[in-house]
Design a protein that fits this description.
Layout: H1 4-21, H2 24-34, E1 45-50, H3 54-65, E2 69-77, E3 89-93, H4 100-119, E4 122-128, H5 131-134, H6 144-156, H7 161-169, H8 178-183, E5 188-193, H9 216-225, H10 234-244, E6 262-268, H11 270-283, E7 287-295, H12 299-314, E8 324-330, H13 344-355, E9 362-368, E10 380-384, H14 387-393, H15 398-403, H16 407-414, E11 417-418, E12 429-435
Parallel strand pairs: 1-2, 1-4, 2-3, 4-5, 5-6, 7-8
Antiparallel strand pairs: 8-12, 9-10, 9-12, 10-11
Helix pairs in contact: 1-11, 2-3, 7-9, 9-10, 12-13
Length: about 450
């Protein structure tokens, strides 16, 4: 049986293999080679990019297209590592709650798009997770602070990404296909690094160049379902009500002419990272199984299920033969009930740790591939069968920590955080479960 330290190292190795496979620069280079018909040699290009991977994606474009790029604008998160390609300029903004930098960047992106429309220049859109917040341009009459408030309240209420984006798309000038409407008749090639389960292009960065299947009525219904309509900010309610009454144009539908010149390609996603993690585990000698790349729901429930799967493998009642590896990916949610500090990956791992308490030869980890887990400075955490006991020995109550959404405090005390810093990519979350053999 491998030691606990060896299992921890193997968990990390598999997670890092997933991150390496989701390298945005390489994925964009490969995509541009495949999409040669959409970008004929010698044709000039204007570039816009927004999201956590925008900077690294832009280098893939720069090193492929070179001086064919006439200019462009990126919006990246504060603290993004690296510099911008020389032909582009960039703005920094906040995520997940937008700030003034997001709005300034969105205005600059709109200017580039209008330039492309007027000259009918090819537009290259580099889209990645986080773009929903970073590309924020509220309609007239809605102050930024109201967008910040409704975004924060939806997250605290446990809204999933589709619900959140449904509302955001109807409180913005560029989301929900509106950027494509502004760009017409300029041709658009959109390269998308997906951070949404199932890769729906309308949901990734709130689909600025994709048809929107939702309407104002859906946005209002989300707020009502989450108990927020009655206390939504005045400007938000006024705008959505105007949309309901047909006084504000809704987002474009699939048959809108603006999409005729849009070509979209998913360059990487959760499966990209998960399959690389499976390959890494196989190389380390584990019988590896990819469970799913569509893990959703409450983080603690997903953690419990993964912990139960690990226990079943250890007890020999289910799963691959030992030494075994289970790989999963997706995006869970946390309904905040307590006043603690944490993120969905840490909460998932804490719930799993309680399920594998006392088991030998078991380790699991979960991280956000963007390097950020909720409002914390870590990407995720690792647990073993000894995690719960160690926590109690240090005076922590794992059940209470879970109830207070305080996973960060517990894992910080144990030194069991995964800390990568911002990775410059984003393909949802990645989970690894390892069960060593008994020899």
């Amino acid at each position: 049986m491998k030691s606990e330290q060896e299992l921890r190292e193997d968990v990390l190795a598999c997670l890092m293999a997933g991150l390496e496979a989701a390298d945005p620069e390489r994925l964009v280079r490969d995509a541009l080679e495949r999409e040669e018909s959409a970008l004929p040699p010698g044709e000039s290009v204007l570039v816009v990019g927004f999201g956590k991977a925008a900077l690294r994606m832009s280098w893939g474009a720069d090193r492929t297209l070179g001086d064919r790029i006439l200019g462009g604008t990126l919006i990246v998160p504060h603290g993004s590592p690296g510099k911008c390609p020389p032909r582009l300029r960039h703005y920094h903004g906040a995520h997940p709650i937008p700030d003034a930098g997001c709005v300034a960047g969105a205005q600059a992106v709109r200017d580039v798009v209008l330039r492309a429309a007027q000259s009918q220049t090819q537009l290259l859109c580099l889209i990645s997770g986080g773009g929903s917040a970073l590309l924020t341009l509220p309609p007239a009459g809605i102050p930024l602070e109201e967008i910040r408030t409704v975004t924060r309240e939806l997250q605290l209420a446990g809204a999933d990404i589709r619900e959140l984006n449904c509302v955001r798309k109807h409180l913005d000038q560029l989301k929900g296909g509106r950027l494509a409407r502004i760009a017409g008749p300029a041709p658009i090639l959109a390269l998308v690094l997906s951070d949404v389960v199932g890769d729906p292009c309308d949901a990734i960065a709130s689909g600025p160049v994709s048809p929107d299947p939702t309407a104002y009525a859906d946005a209002v219904e989300v707020l009502k379902h989450r108990g927020l309509w009655g206390r939504a900010p005045e400007g938000v309610r006024r705008h959505l009500q105007a949309g309901l009454e047909g006084n504000v144009e809704d987002s474009p539908r699939p048959d809108d002419a603006c999409f005729a010149s849009v070509r979209t390609s998913i360059v990487g996603n959760a499966r990209t990272a998960a399959e690389a993690a499976v390959g890494c585990a196989q190389g380390l000698g584990y019988d590896s199984q990819l469970l799913s790349v569509e893990i959703t729901g409450e983080a603690r429930e997903a953690g419990r299920v993964l912990g139960q799967r690990a226990r079943a493998i250890r007890e020999g009642s289910a799963g691959p033969r030992m030494p075994a590896c289970l790989v999963a990916a997706g995006e869970t949610a946390v309904t905040v009930r307590g006043a603690g500090k944490g993120g969905r990956n840490q909460e998932l791992v804490l719930a799993a740790a309680m399920e594998i308490e006392g088991l030998k030869g078991v380790a699991l980890g979960s991280l956000g591939t963007d390097g950020i887990d909720g409002p914390t400075d870590v990407a995720g955490a690792i647990a073993t069968g000894r995690t719960v006991r160690r926590a109690r020995e240090q005076g922590h109550n794992p059940s209470a920590a879970l109830g207070e959404n305080d996973s960060y405090t517990l894992f910080h005390a144990l030194g069991d955080h995964i800390q990568t810093g911002p990775t410059g990519t984003n393909v949802t979350d990645l989970q690894i479960v390892l069960v060593s053999d008994e020899h």
